[in-house]
Amino acid sequence: MHVTLIAGARPNFMKIASIINAIKEAQSEGKDITYRLVHTGQHYDANMSGQFFDQLNIPKPDVDLGCGGGSHAEQTANIMLKFEKDLIEHPTDLVIVVGDVNSTMACSIVAKKLHTKVAHVEGGIRSGDWTMPEEINRIVTDSITDYFFTTSETANQNLLKSGISTDQIFFVGNTMIDTLLRNLDRLQKPEFWDKHSLEDGAYFVMTLHRPNNVDEGQHLKRLLDTVIEKSRDLPVIFPVHPRTMTSLKELGISYPNLHMVDPMGYLEFIYIVKNAKMVITDSGGITEETTVLGVPCITLRNSTERPETVEIGTNELLGTDPSAIPAALDTLFDGKWKKGQIPEKWDGKTGDRIVKCLSALERG
Ligand code: UD1
Fold first, then answer.
1. Closest C-alpha among 144, 138, 157 to residue 115
2. Which atom of ligand 1 is found nearest the CA of 104?
3. pTM above the 0.90 mark?
C-alpha cells in the first residue's frame, strides 16, 4: 500500500511523527507499505514547523506546497490548488489527514474529488461550537472521510450518530500521546529556565492563540491581568504564538512575573509542561498532554472537543470569561486539584494500530 500523509500546522507534526515511526517499523518487518509526506506550508516559521521536524526526527517532506498565511478562504484555496496538482502527479492508495486545521480539510476535499480514499486521524471529535474554524474543518472532513481513526468512545458515538457505519470506524487511541511517551526521556530544559529562576512545580505555563481570546486586545488584557493577580507571584511562562504577538504588541503589557517567550520546540515545551504547577491554555492538544502527564490544566474556552480530558483527566473547562479563573487557582493552591486518569488506548501504541488497520484494509 502507498499512502500520502498530510502535515500543515504545528499540532499536526506530533501526530504525523507517530504514524511515520509505525510505518518505518512495519517496513523493517518486511511489510509492503510506503509513504509520501506532503507539507502544505500552513505553518512555515522555523519555530512553528522546522524545529519539530528536527526534534521528532520526521523526514524532510517530499514536497512543501508553501501555502502559509492569508485569510481562511485564501489559505484553503491555495492548498487545494497546489495539492490537486501534486496528487495528480503522485497518485496514491490513500490520503491520510490528521487533526482539524485548514490543511486537513483542504487536502481531504482534493483527494475525494480525485476519487482517492481518505483516512482521518482524530476523526469524530466535536466541540459543538460553529464559530471555531476547526469545528467546520472537522465536520467537512468527516463528511467525506472513508476511514476514521478515533481517539475516544465519544468520537465513535459522534460518528455513529451522524450515520457513519461501524466498519469505517477504528478506535485506535491518540497519536499525539504516542509522540509524548516516546520522547519523555529526551526532554530538554529550556535555556530560560535559570534566567527566570524556575523550579519544579512552582510556575505556570500559559498558551493562548484562539481568535476569540487573542484578537480583541482588551479581552486578552483582562485574561492576563486576572492570571497575574492570582498567580501569587509565581513565574508565568507564556510562549507566544505569532497570531497572539500581533495583539500583545499593541497592548504593551508588562509584569515582573510574566515571561513572554518565542514559540518553543517540542522537547523544551513538554519539559516545562511536565514540571509546571498548572497549565492555562485554549489549545485542545495540550489538554491531552497534561492529562497524560497528570498536570493540572484549565482551558479558557466555552467548549471542548476532547471531553475526556475533563471527565477523566486533569483539565477543567472554565470558559472565556476571566471571572472564573480566581476560584480555580484557589482550588489549585489549596492542593485540591483532581488527580485524573489516563483515557483508554492513550498508551503509545496508536501508530502501530493504525498501520495494522491499513494492512487489514488492503487485504480487504
Ligand atoms: C492554526 C490552526 C489551529 C491550530 C493552530 C496551532 C486552522 C484553522 N487553525 O491556527 O487549529 O490550533 O494552527 O498553532 O488551521 N504565522 C506565522 N508563522 C507561522 C505560522 C503562522 O507568522 O509559522 C502567522 C500566519 O501568517 C497568520 C497567523 O500566524 O497570520 C495565523 O496562522 P494560521 O495558520 O492561519 O492559523 P493559526 O492561528 O496558527
1. 144
2. 15
3. yes
